[in-house]
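Researcher: I've been going back and forth with a colleague about how Molecular chaperone DnaJ might be arranged in three dimensions. Neither of us has a model we trust, so I'd like an independent prediction. The organism is Polyangium fumosum, in case that matters for your notes. Sequence below.
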Amino acid sequence: MAVDSCGICGGDGRITNSFGNETRCPGCHGTGRRSEDGGLRDVTKTKPSHYRATNKAAAPPKAQGPATLAGIALANEVQASAHVSNDTKAKLTREIAEHEATHGKCTETFIKKVKKQLRPIAR
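Model: Here is an independent structure prediction for Molecular chaperone DnaJ. You can compare it with whatever you and your colleague have in mind.
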């Protein structure tokens, strides 16, 4: 019975590149015989151990409402507005909290912008 030699290394079990480096054949893994499974291994990361949880800490929760005195006063003014819808009130309160998170405080320009949105529509 004839043994089939590896098609990549020719039965040597070793391969050499153009720089003279020599290594084991990836087709037969150094045996020199043709393998039954085709010779090449699946190297994709399909094991569950490759998908472990990261070591990162959970992100801090976002502020639900304003934290500074100016922000709280502005949010109370938004909530007291009678002609503004509840959706708009919630949106403006969320904007106030996000502005405080990025800027550290409510700037005068931002306060004017919010108060402008609270004015009744002139007809």
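Researcher: What would you highlight for our discussion?
Model: I'd start with this: Residues 86-103 form the longest helix (18 residues). After that, consider the following. The beta strands are 14-16, 22-24.
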